[in-house]
């Protein structure tokens, strides 16, 4: 993954710009994911997918000493999952900066996997057909997960560099005008 490390080292703001750019990493296989279960036989989960440990180790090596991406988007697992901000070892980060949010968006049409147990790394995990709609400003990310019937199943926002996720008001739609920031203060969403 030397090419990834080289590319990420060049992710710098353009001359004269004071804000940091958003760094999104997309891939097919998710390094961190809800544990999927394709079916059960005698109570045991058969099929589905879990974390990709070898991929995760490769990413850790490639990102060592670099500012990590803000978000990682992957598919492969036939479900939806959104992590809390995680450090490079996969532990939830509640304060400070540097957490990476992982979105698994694999509910595009193939048979869905069931979700196995509670995973403390995950903020949300569902077995639904869906897509994720994302809108970014210079300082805030807004996301909506919309199911096959057009209902919003997960939504929120966060400030660039912050490890705090804030909910969006139920009446704030993905096509409404965005405020410049996600939060009025550290605890109140702007919308």
Provide the gyration radius in Å: 17 Å
Overall spatial form? globular
CA distance, first residue to last residue:
39 Å
Main beta-sheet strand count, sense and barrel state: 5 strands, mixed
- Oligomerization state: single chain
Low-pLDDT windows of residues: none
Give the rounded overall mean pLDDT. 83
The tally of helices reads 2
Query: What is the H/E string?
Result: HEEEEHEEEEEEEE
- β-strand amount: 25-35%
Helix content percent band? under 10%
Based on secondary structure, the structural category is mainly beta
Largest sheet, order of strands side by side? 1-5-7-6-9
**Total strands:** 12
Give structural notes.
This protein has 191 residues and is mainly β. It has 2 helices and 12 strands, in the order αββββαββββββββ. The chain has helices at 2-9, 53-63, and strands at 24-27, 36-37, 39-41, 44-46, 71-74, 80-83, 101-105, 114-115, 122-126, 130-136, 140-147, 152-159. It has a 5-stranded mixed sheet with strand order 1-5-7-6-9, with no helix packed on it. It has a 3-stranded antiparallel sheet with strand order 10-11-12, with no helix packed on it. A two-stranded antiparallel sheet has the order 2-8. The longest helix is centred in the N-terminal third of the chain and has 11 residues, at 53-63. The relative contact order is 0.15.
């Amino acid at each position: 993954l030397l090419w990834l490390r080289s590319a990420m080292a060049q992710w710098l703001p353009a001359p004269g710009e004071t804000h940091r750019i958003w760094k999104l990493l997309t891939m097919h296989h998710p390094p961190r994911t809800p544990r999927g279960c394709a079916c059960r036989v005698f109570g045991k989960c058969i099929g589905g997918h879990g974390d990709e440990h070898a991929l995760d180790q490769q990413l850790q090596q490639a990102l060592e000493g670099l500012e990590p991406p803000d978000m990682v988007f992957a598919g492969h697992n036939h479900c939806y999952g959104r992590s809390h901000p995680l450090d490079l070892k996969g532990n939830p980060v509640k304060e400070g900066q540097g957490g990476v949010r992982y979105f698994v968006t694999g509910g595009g049409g193939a048979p869905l996997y069931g979700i196995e147990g509670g995973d403390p790394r995950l903020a949300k995990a569902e077995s639904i057909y869906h897509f994720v709609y994302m809108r970014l400003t210079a300082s805030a990310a807004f996301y909506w997960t919309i199911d096959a019937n057009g209902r919003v199943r997960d939504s929120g926002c966060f400030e660039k560099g912050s490890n705090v996720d804030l909910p969006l008001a139920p009446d704030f739609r993905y096509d409404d005008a965005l405020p410049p920031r996600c939060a009025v203060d550290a605890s109140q969403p702007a919308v």
